[in-house]
Design a protein that fits this description.
The structure is a homodimer. By secondary structure, the first copy, chain A, is α+β, with helices and mostly antiparallel strands. Chain A has 2 domains: 39 residues; 100 residues, 2-Layer Sandwich (GMP Synthetase, Chain A, domain 3), CATH 3.30.300.20. Chain A contains 3 helices and 6 strands. In chain A, strands 1-2-3 form a 3-stranded antiparallel sheet, with no helix packed on it. In chain A, strands 4-5-6 form a 3-stranded mixed sheet, covered by helices on one side. The longest helix of chain A has 20 residues. The radius of gyration of chain A is 18 Å and the shape is elongated. Chain A starts with a strand and ends with a strand. β4 of chain A pairs antiparallel with β1 of chain B, so a sheet runs across the interface.
Chain lengths: 143, 143
């Protein structure tokens, strides 16, 4: 399967992405000559991971009938960059934060199972980062 | 240097990214239970590359006084996914498409130099993909 993403220059340091028909403005910050008209592109390596694994997990939890007990579900992805060029991620940590609805108890084993299935089987983003030698860690937080 | 990106569940298969204060809705397509309220997360691996190398190249071309001769600059990134889980990119191709303003001639050697500097020295996104064993190729198109 093949995909094509366009990144079109909009003057100065700004560009516009066309991702399957959804348009997003990106820009550099003022310190490097941009105007901060949109986010920077590199952190989308982390965002892509958070979105990919988040969708895997919620999809599995819906099948397990666990999603209806959730008041909130947030995936926080942090990444550590080198200081030398080319500045790239050398480690990433994913925190899966689940908040139960009032009066509901979340089944921890099922949350763990959903996260493991994403990490080991479904998430094609983390697969690439692991192959690249990025140190990948994760934790599950239940509130 | 450390960065944190949040991906917050918005019901069904939709999530909202917070990338340095810029919020973006992502979603799955209808075929897999989503409502297509936003783009999917995985193609942002390609978008991140296009944005990163596009900003490198335009930054260098501004210093070389070449950017003022440009009517348009588009970076097209295509990627080939495996069909097996975890579905991940195995090859990527970047097409740097430069269009000159009416009556201007673009200095091809300078375009080539700017692209090489990004590929070999500055782009931390392609660095990770190369390390992951993804087959990376590129071309320069002048219009």
């Amino acid at each position: 399967m093949s995909e094509v993403i366009k990144t079109v220059w909009k003057g100065n340091m700004a560009f516009e992405w066309d991702v399957n028909g959804h348009k997003i403005m990106i820009d550099a910050v003022e310190a490097v000559g941009g105007e901060n008209r949109g986010p920077q592109p590199k952190p989308f390596m982390l965002a892509s991971l958070g979105g990919c694994t988040g969708m895997d997990v919620i999809s599995i939890l819906r099948k397990m009938k666990v999603s209806e007990k959730l008041d909130d579900f947030t995936v926080e992805v942090s990444g550590e960059l080198t200081t030398e060029h080319p500045k790239h991620y050398v480690s990433m940590h994913v925190n899966y934060i689940f908040t139960a609805k009032n009066g509901e108890e979340l089944p921890f084993e099922k949350l763990k199972k959903a996260v493991s299935l994403s990490e080991e089987r479904y998430c094609g983003v983390s697969e690439v980062y692991r192959k690249a030698g990025i140190k990948m860690t994760s934790e599950i937080t239940v509130k």
